[in-house]
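HOLO CASE FILE
Compound: heme C
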Amino acid sequence: MKKLIVGGIVACAVVALRTSAFAGGILGSPHDFTGETTWNSRAGACSPCHAAHHTDEDQIAPLWVHATDPRTSWEMYDSPTMDATVGTAPSGNSLACLSCHDGALGINATISTPAPASPVIIDAGARIGENGDLHTTHPISFDYDAAAALDMGLELSSYVIGDAKDGLDARHKGMSAEGLVAPVPATWSGTSLTGQTIADALLIGGKMECSSCHDVHKLEGASPSSGILARLSGSDVNGNGSILCRTCHIK
Ligand code: HEC
Ligand code: HEC
Ligand code: HEC
Ligand code: HEC
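Model generated. Tokens follow.
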């Protein structure tokens, strides 16, 4: 797979930015639309989402050329125990994902041809935020700041992935650090993000977004065609999973 994706200068840059033991890439992943030759006649790997010129005025994602969901009303996640302040709409980076995944726009809709209503994502499971409803999805589009990390048992965004999970401290709702014992080992096997901070590896401009958990280009984690494009997958030294969640949450 690695060979297949290093064909272009930009692709090389992406590979250099995100090194991985299991480098994959768009080709062969669920975001490989090169076979959709009825609407992707030049079999572009990047062009369904990016172009070099005449891209989105708002640059909701870098050099974004897909049409953007014009929806103005969203229902965001909330709960009585949430400490972070979630806004009333997803920020650009997640909106880019939702412009296909909420099922309202065609996969082939572009800023110059926004009309095509088909093909849309038909698989019900892959429809996230349908009708603008994000209240059943993990909170997104908020600053992962010290206030958000006040939640009982969250690492600060400066936590270095792979370091001891000692983030349970007096920050947490005024509790005494004494007697608080992190329940998980810090060592995740097979992760490419060890040594990077949560801020660098998982946040987009300091915010939690869809891309905090998913790697749309599939350069991280397991092979391109497997699973849900998780940024972190595998297990800890004891063979237990959910390492994506447990990187941020000390639970
Ligand atoms: C299905 C849509 C999609 C396709 C196809 C796609 N991208 Fe992206 N790309 C995104 C989104 C969304 C973002 C912003 C979110 C993120 O970085 O995860 C992004 C971000 C980027 C970035 C900036 C952030 C970073 O990762 O460095 C670069 C560079 C990039 N893409 C290059 C490419 C290239 C080159 C290709 C083709 C080989 C490609 N992309 C294919 C959706 C796509
Ligand atoms: C150009 C349209 C488009 C954009 C933009 C897009 N996706 Fe997708 N995505 C798809 C399609 C189509 C599939 C395959 C859907 C299916 O299985 O029905 C898919 C599949 C996925 C899957 C795997 C689902 C599975 O079980 O196979 C994940 C996870 C995913 N996308 C996340 C994202 C995230 C996160 C972003 C933004 C960073 C994003 N996508 C941007 C079109 C898009
Ligand atoms: C906190 C991490 C996290 C965030 C944030 C997140 N996801 Fe996911 N996503 C997951 C996990 C884990 C799964 C695996 C299935 C599950 O738990 O429902 C998944 C599954 C998916 C799937 C596949 C569902 C299926 O059944 O085929 C898609 C598509 C997807 N996510 C897109 C998105 C989009 C779009 C966003 C932003 C609006 C997003 N995700 C935000 C962690 C996340
Ligand atoms: C990039 C870091 C990060 C990752 C990865 C992550 N979370 Fe979160 N999660 C957060 C933050 C920050 C909050 C907001 C907490 C707050 O402010 O109360 C949150 C909120 C939550 C909440 C809601 C808390 C509440 O009080 O309503 C739950 C439940 C949750 N996460 C579970 C998960 C699960 C399960 C996974 C793995 C699929 C996951 N998280 C992955 C950072 C993360």
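CASE NOTES: Confidence is low (pLDDT under 50) at residues 1-22. The first strand starts at residue 142 and ends at 143.
CLOSED: yes
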